[in-house]
Specification:
Elements (H helix, E strand, L loop, with lengths): L16 H9 L14 E7 L2 E9 L4 E6 L8 E3 L5 H12 L4
Antiparallel strand pairs: 1-2, 2-3, 3-4
Length: 99
Amino acid sequence: MSPPPLTGDTVALWGPAQQALDLVTAPPDSEPYRCLLPGRGIRAHGPTGALFEAAFCFRCRSARMWEAGMSACHRDQPFDGDSPAALDLLRRFRHRLPT
């Protein structure tokens, strides 16, 4: 995995990486927008190091993913910011809730 693309302080620790990944992948797709000014992100670690990172922009409704071996065409993922899953993820970010 390349150097960490996310910056900022760790403000909450969420449970197992699979639970965090499930939250990241739950919102349905949407039409892509362009701004990508992520204000929140997830960095998942396993016993041997970083597993994946995801940065979220709820303004343009896009997530940028970093994972070892992930092709560039899969890095930017639009999502439906009004879906229950996206709203739950945003609520967790705002309140720093664990999974």
